[in-house]
Amino acid sequence: MRFLVVFMALGLGLGAGCAGRKSQPAFTAAPAKARAASPAPAADKITVTPSEVRTGKIVKYNPSGRFVVINFPVVQVPPVDLVMEVYRQGLKVGQVRITGPQLDDNIVADVIAGEVAIGDLVRDQ
């Protein structure tokens, strides 16, 4: 008897839950006139150009030898004999000349002016 009562209560609960739902379309497309009437204006197009400035970071510094090891992104490692500026907190603090050797994305440079430290940024002139 108890089984019959539980079964009927469960059946009524499920039936009432399903009866309350109304079917709604999953997606309604906008009318064709509305889609064609509003093209994006040409002034809103954005053009992104990559920066041509090489930027690296000093990861090692040898004060007695006056040379540094600079880490660059792989595609931005500069050529040998390029003179670059050293910046700390946005202020120019020195100058280095890329001398090599290069290992992966690290390259050695001689300090030719100023005072540099680990963590300084190195950029093209």
Brief summary:
This protein has helices at residues 2-19, 32-37, and strands at residues 55-62, 67-71, 83-88, 91-103, 106-114, 121-124.
What does this structure look like?
By secondary structure, this protein is an alpha+beta fold. The chain has a domain at 55-124: Thrombin, subunit H (Beta Barrel), CATH 2.40.10. Helices cover 19% and strands 36% of the residues. The chain contains two helices and six strands; from the N terminus they run H-H-E-E-E-E-E-E. It has a six-stranded antiparallel barrel with strand order 1-2-5-4-3-6. A hairpin with a 2-residue loop joins strand 3 (83-88) and strand 4. The longest helix has 18 residues, at 2-19. The model has no long low-confidence stretch (mean pLDDT 81).
What would the principal axes of the Cα set say about the shape?
A: elongated
Largest sheet: 6 strands, antiparallel, barrel
Give the strand content.
35-45%
Coarse structural class: alpha+beta
Name the helicity range: 10-25%
| CATH architecture term of the domain at 55-124 | Beta Barrel
- Average per-residue pLDDT, rounded, comes to 81
List the helices and strands and how they pair.
Blueprint: H1 2-19, H2 32-37, E1 55-62, E2 67-71, E3 83-88, E4 91-103, E5 106-114, E6 121-124
Antiparallel strand pairs: 1-2, 1-6, 2-5, 3-4, 3-6, 4-5
Note the main attributes of this structure:
36% strand, alpha+beta, 6-stranded antiparallel barrel, Thrombin, subunit H, 125 residues, 2 helices, elongated
